[in-house]
Specification:
With 220 residues, this protein is of the alpha/beta class. It has one domain: TIM Barrel (Alpha-Beta Barrel). The relative contact order is 0.11.
């Protein structure tokens, strides 16, 4: 994710040009931090490289969430993550090929925190699957009421064969391995790359991403 503290970074276009030669296949950004024009150019660059693009909705009102979904359709994003009004957002996405991964639980604030019990998460994810969503976007490590790994297991139980993406506050190899062991299909990472905290002994964004890539294979 080309983001820090739940915002797309201002130099995202420069950053995407820097990192795409690594052969990354999944690159995303948030719906806040830069203009829609910049988001459009960013999405175009990601998709032109052959990578799948993701827009994560972190806006905090129903109106702004729907506006972000409309932007996603307009610029041709491959996947929309986040948002909680499943029916309304699906209605926006309906005439596009954009896949949808809503937030289970009760996200709030910015940066986003996640309220909700294990039962809430499982029930919401089961509802997402029933509504035809591609999966769910779980803020496991932003949870305020339950253990992150237990939340991942509950979400996966509710989703069945649908994909579970774990997002937010992932900063270490240990977390990546725990997420994989709990059954998640994917995770997002942004701030830990851009602030250098994933691999503190390395100085560049490319080195941070290289360290993550090196840690991924043992996690599978």
């Amino acid at each position: 994710m080309l983001t820090r503290q739940d915002r797309t970074v201002a130099d995202c276009l420069e950053l995407v040009r820097l990192i795409l030669p690594l052969g990354l296949k999944h690159v995303g950004f948030k719906d806040v931090g830069v203009s829609p024009t910049t988001l459009s150019a960013l999405n175009e660059a990601i998709r032109a490289s052959g990578a799948t693009s993701y827009l994560e909705v972190v806006s905090t009102t129903p109106e702004t969430c729907l506006a972000s979904a409309r932007i996603a359709v307009e610029i041709g994003v491959d996947c929309v993550m986040g948002g909680t009004d499943v029916v309304a957002i699906q209605d926006v996405l309906r005439k596009s090929e954009t896949r949808f991964f809503p937030f289970p639980g009760y996200p709030h604030g910015h940066p986003t925190r996640l309220a909700g019990t294990l039962q809430d998460i499982e029930t919401h994810c089961r509802d997402f699957a029933a509504h035809g969503c591609a999966g769910a976007d779980l803020l496991a490590y932003r949870a305020t009421e339950a253990d992150p790994i237990a939340l991942i297991r509950a979400a996966k139980k509710g989703l069945g064969a649908k994909r579970l993406i774990v997002a937010g506050s992932i900063v270490s190899k240990a977390q990546i391995r725990a997420i994989a062991a709990a059954g998640a299909d994917a995770f997002t990472i942004g701030s830990a790359v851009l602030d250098g905290s994933y691999a503190p002994d390395m100085g560049s964004v490319l080195s941070q991403l290289g360290a993550i890539q090196a840690d991924l294979e043992p996690a599978r």
